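> forwarded from #structure-qc
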């Protein structure tokens, strides 16, 4: 069909693993850079993988020699190494996009120039209590203190309820580059997966995300009780935000739906995203299929990104005991229309994403009814 392009993936966690699943079905070799036996490598037997870290320039150079295009399952990669290898191999999305996006403050400064609505925020320069107290007076309380870098699953955020919380907040995020954000009084969190191709910016339907302890717990596709107009507006906002960056592939866009039905961007990711896992069962082309096609300039019929059936995704997260996730999986085996995805990450730790389950239904109500017993099991296993 084509001249067997090889894809190099920075990172071999669950996102890389699901990318490999998509690449495998098209006979595309995916060379993974990560430790040996990482989840993505376990399902891909060939000698093109590279052992090492996406933060080591030498390992990135080595991966570049094995493939035609490099992509990443994570934004916390060495973008200077990517910049260097970009003269020899295609890097998608661009290293510039990844570099800007991996620093959330820079990401938001960049998006501001494109008129993307966001919570007001202020940069901290010295990380002193006096400085944060001054910002608190400007933004009001509560406010969210955030790390600019290396933030995920809420590990990088601290809710500052009042001036009294300032010492604790600065201690919790010490030695990290910080900014603080005005509190967003949202009624719902929405997300949209965007696919940037060589000449298009496409989007999947708008979903509703529910976080617990700042970790994504449930995703409802489509978002419940959200009008078609808001669904379309959220997709348009997500596409506009992603269009502000160079390069091809999947981008995950998180948004807040405010009380007055206006939308605000929360953050975006330059990669396939947890809020898009439902697309494996819910659409003809999953976010992983689309990402592989986008970076290789293969056709993506826009119709293939439409919702086939209402879908709910539940994350299986490490809980109170090392086998909590196994008990949840056991329960999922008996649920009709439930597709189970385990990531083979080894030992569970509280808060670690071990797998997910997607339940589909003819209606959202049917999917909700089917998944409820599993949600109940997961709730009893919280750490
Ligand atoms: P990350 O997902 O990388 O940890 P986010 O910026 O997405 O960081 O924040 C995680 C969660 O914290 C969001 O999904 C939302 O629930 C909450 N949150 C983030 N920013 C704000 C804010 N400004 N106001 C209220 N809640 C927020
Ligand atoms: Na994130
Ligand atoms: Mg987030």
């Amino acid at each position: 069909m084509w001249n067997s392009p090889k894809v190099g993936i920075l990172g071999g966690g669950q996102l890389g693993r699901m990318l490999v699943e998509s690449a495998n079905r098209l006979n595309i070799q995916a060379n993974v850079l990560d430790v040996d036996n990482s989840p993505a490598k376990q399902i891909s037997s060939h000698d093109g993988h590279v052992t090492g870290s996406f933060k080591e320039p030498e390992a990135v150079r080595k991966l570049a020699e094995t493939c035609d295009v490099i992509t990443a399952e994570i934004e916390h990669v060495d973008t200077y190494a990517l910049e260097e290898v970009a003269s020899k191999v295609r890097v998608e999305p661009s290293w510039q996009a990844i570099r800007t996006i991996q620093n959330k403050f820079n990401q938001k400064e960049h998006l501001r120039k494109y008129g993307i609505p966001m919570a007001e925020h202020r940069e901290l320069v010295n990380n002193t209590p006096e400085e944060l107290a001054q910002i608190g007076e400007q933004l009001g309380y509560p406010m969210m203190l955030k790390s600019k870098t290396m933030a995920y699953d809420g590990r990088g955020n601290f809710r500052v309820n009042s001036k009294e919380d300032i010492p604790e907040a600065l201690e919790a995020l010490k030695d990290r580059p910080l900014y603080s954000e005005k509190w967003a009084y949202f009624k719902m969190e929405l997300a949209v997966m965007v696919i940037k191709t060589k000449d298009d910016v496409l989007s999947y339907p708008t979903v509703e995300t529910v976080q617990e302890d700042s970790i994504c717990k449930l995703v409802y596709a489509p978002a419940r009780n959200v009008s078609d107009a808001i669904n379309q507006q959220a997709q348009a906002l997500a596409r506009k935000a992603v269009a502000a960056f160079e390069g091809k592939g999947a981008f995950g866009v998180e948004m807040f739906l405010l009380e007055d039905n206006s939308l605000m961007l929360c953050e975006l990711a330059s990669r396939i995203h947890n809020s898009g896992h439902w697309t494996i069962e819910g659409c003809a082309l999953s976010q992983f299929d689309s990402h592989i096609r986008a970076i290789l300039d293969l056709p993506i019929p826009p119709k293939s990104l439409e919702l086939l059936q209402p879908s709910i995704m539940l994350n299986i997260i490490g809980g109170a005991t090392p086998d909590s996730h196994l008990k949840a999986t056991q329960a999922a085996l008996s649920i009709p229309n439930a597709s189970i995805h385990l990531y083979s990450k080894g030992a569970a730790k509280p808060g670690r994403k071990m797998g997910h389950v997607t339940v589909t239904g003819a209606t959202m109500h049917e999917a909700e009814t089917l998944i409820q017993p599993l949600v109940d099991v997961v709730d009893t296993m919280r750490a």
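QC bot note: Residues 18 and 121 are 35 Å apart (CA to CA). Residues 152, 267, 269 surround sodium ion (ligand 2) (CB under 6 Å).
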